[in-house]
Write a structure and sequence with these properties.
This protein is an alpha+beta fold and 263 residues long. The chain contains 5 helices and 13 strands.
């Protein structure tokens, strides 16, 4: 399949409830560089669901268009309708995601953890300054670019809201499912009220995972406070321990509220 006489679909990369993602090549450019094509493919046939899905897809395109000016966020190349279908085309990032660096059984040093935190937070700071909450930060959505070893944030959450669309009585659509991934998603986000510090929570969890070599869902929690218990699994300095604890506090009001306070 060739879209707009330009983007040739090579293979399917993934399929969600409402979006199918493909690897494609750009036939108009020399060397035919690879790109990523996302197609809005609602599994729910109802027109009002399609309308909300379409508006969220628009929102994702606008976010990518705005944020893609940063060299560590994929650029948006095109956004269009063809044959009654909606597509967005974005930069393909060659590299590996952070599941190559953070996985159960592997521990990284404190020095490496601090470097990783700084690398992720630098890019996230820009995202937050642009008034966007990522909402699905996890190792799978953070790439280490092959060409320069830099961190790239991928897969912003707007389109994921679509997964939870339902039509309630009177034909109104409501978005029911919180965007995010269990383990990396704090309480307020699970309740559908994400904050900037919800992203900070997710980054803190990844750092704790990397330091301890323990899977995110294996940590026990203090039954009276809801706080994650992790320091018994690794030796870290008091300073880093304090910072990470504050990043992942159960109550969002007590967390760091801006990345500037962290860096």
């Amino acid at each position: 399949m060739i879209l707009r006489h330009r983007y040739k679909i090579i293979s399917e990369l993934g399929k969600g409830g409402f979006v199918t993602t493909y690897l494609a090549v750009d036939l108009d450019l020399p060397d035919r560089p690879q790109c990523v094509v996302k197609q809005l493919t609602p599994s729910d046939p109802r027109p009002q669901v399609f309308q909300v899905a379409k508006s969220l897809f628009d929102k994702e395109a606008k976010i990518l268009h705005r944020l893609g000016k940063h060299e560590q966020i994929p650029r948006l190349f095109a956004y269009f309708e063809e044959g009654g279908q909606f597509y967005l085309v974005q930069e393909f990032i060659e590299g590996n995601d952070l599941t190559n660096e953070i996985y159960p059984g592997k521990k990284i040093s404190e020095k490496q953890a601090i470097k990783l935190l700084a690398e992720i937070l630098e890019v996230l700071k820009y995202v937050h300054e642009e008034n966007v909450i990522h909402r699905d930060l996890k190792p799978q959505n953070i790439m280490r670019r092959k060409s320069d070893g830099k961190i790239v944030l991928i897969d912003f959450g707007a389109v994921k809201e679509i997964k939870g669309l339902t039509v309630i009585r009177g034909g109104q659509t409501s978005i029911t499912i919180a965007v995010g991934t269990p383990g990396y998603m704090p309480m307020e986000q699970a309740a559908g009220q994400p904050k900037f510090c919800s992203d900070i929570y997710a980054v803190g969890i990844m750092a704790i995972e990397a330091l301890t070599g323990v899977d995110v869902n294996q940590f026990s929690k203090d039954t009276s406070t809801g706080e994650i218990i992790w320091k018994d699994r690794v030796n870290v300095s008091d300073d880093l321990g304090r910072v990470l604890d504050k990043m992942v506090l159960y109550d969002w009001r007590d967390r760091y509220h801006s990345i500037a306070l962290l860096l």
